Structures are given as C-alpha cells and as structure tokens.
Amino acid sequence: MIGKNTYVIVVMAVIILILMLVIIGQFIYNTKRKKKSMMQIQEMIDSAMDGSFEQRHFDETRLSSIENSMWRFLKDSRLSSTTLAEQKKKIQTLISDISHQTVTPIANIMLYSELLEEKQKKIKVQSFQPDGNIDDETTLDEIAAIREQTSKLDFLIQSLVKLSRLENGIITVNVKKDKIQSVLTAIESQMSAKANQKRIEFLVANSEETAVFDAKWTVEALVNIVDNALKYTPAGGQVSVSVEPYTIFLKIDISDNGIGIAEEEQAKIFTRFYRSIQVSDSEGVGVGLYLAREVISAQKGYIKVQSKINEGTTFSVFLLRE
Q1: CA 257, CA 122: separation in Å to the nearest integer?
Q2: What range(s) does the Histidine kinase domain occupy (predicted)?
Q3: Domain containing residue 226: CATH number
Q4: Interatomic CA distance for residues 90 and 93, integer angstroms
C-alpha cells in the first residue's frame, strides 16, 4: 500500500516537474522572442532615425504582428517624408520661377511708364500749353496710376515669395546676440522719408540693449509694422519706436496716434490678406503684418497689439534676450 502511494507521489512529482519545465521553457522562449522582437523594432527605429531604413532590410513574412505594424508605419513614414521633400523641392523651384519670370516684365512696365510720362511732358512743353489741356492731364494721371499699380504688384509678388520661402523652410532666420541699435538705425533710415512726405513726426529711440535676432529679417518685420503705422496715421500725427528691456525678452514698441483698430479685428490683422473694412479704400494688400508675425515667430518671439479707435495703436514686438 505504501509502495503504491509512493509510486503515485513520484509520478505526480514527475508530472509536476515536467509541467514546470514546460512552463519555464515556454517562459524563456517567449522572453527571447519578445526580446528579439524588441531588438528588431529598435533596429527599425534606429535605421529610420539615421535615414537608412529601407524596405529590403526587413522581411514582412518573418515579423510578428507588432513588428509588422511598425514596419508598415516606418515604410509609410519614409514614403511620406520622401514625397514631402519632393513637393518642397517643387515649391522651391516654382517660387524661384515666379520670382525670376516676373522681375523683367514688371521692370519693363515701370521703365516704359516713365518713358511715356517723359514723352507726354515733352509734348506738353512743345505745344506751348503751360497749363496743358484735359487730355494731357488725364494721360499723365493714367500713366501715374499704371506706375503705382505696377509698384503694388511688384511689392505683392516679392512679399509672397518671401512668405513662401519662410513657410516652406527655404529661407531660415540666422539669429545671433547683438545690439538692437543697428535695427533701429535701419528703420529710421528706411522710413523717415515716408514720414516726412506725410508730415508725420517720426521718433526712433536709441538703445544699447541686446537681443537674439536675425538683423535683416527683423528690420523687414519692424519696417512692415512702421509702414502700417505711417499708413493709418493722419498728417500732423506721430509714430514712435521705443525699446524696453525685460528679464527674458526685449520689447520694441511701435506706437501711433492714428485711426486705431477695433477690438474685434485685433485678432484678425495678422491673417494673410486681411483688410479691415475701415481701411479698404487705403493702399495695401494685407501681407505686411502677417509677414512680420512669421518672421518674429521664427525667432521664438511674439507680437502683441493694443489699440483704441481714434486714439492710436501700439504694436509690441518681443525678442529673446538670450
């Protein structure tokens, strides 16, 4: 009886041992399989990160479900990346073509307009009509209108080219820490003539403060804002540029006492081609402020606006100091 019980116990022990060995073996097998899968996935990710991922490196039939999903994801991502790069290259080519193909026709229109204007003035002088006649004056006005509209077209095309290059990463801002005075001097130099022409007092402060910025593009952005201020400030008004340092940012204020911007429109003015109803009859195409925001944002800065109708507007540009 005891021998039989012992036999049963031994058999059960053997069975339990076998089961344990099977379980342990299965555990080891699964662990190795998971480790192999993780290594395979890691290899895929590493090759994708260093740009060497290619479809032929991985055999779909040998992959697990997770590996297969990862393989498909990386393959599709590589395809999307390649397609995006090709599209970006096409956009760059298109932008360059537009820029080059429009320069000569616009320049020719401006040149012929000037020649036509000079010719018309000579005819007026030779005809001994100091006051001219209606037809002469009308012709000169029409020529002036052609030149003005051509100038606007040139500005619009150049602005769109700049925007497209910025948005598609074709042009990048190259920031460095420098004194802001060079930017202030450039703004004053470029915009003083327009201010004098409109009989607007234009005040630009001097500053020894420093910030991190791309000089060329920052001047472009601030000139667009100043131009906007001069455009909507009446004769006898004032536009000023001042600088105020903060701990993290350097603030540049462009202030005017012009017509102001309605509160409900202040969030819209940085939208491309946006034109307020109250200035729809004024010159402009609605890209200056949008371009300014894109440039400042690319430098990790930002722009704020405060305005009251019939009191004026202040655009505050914030640039990182470090």
Answers
A1: 43
A2: 97-322
A3: 3.30.565.10
A4: 5
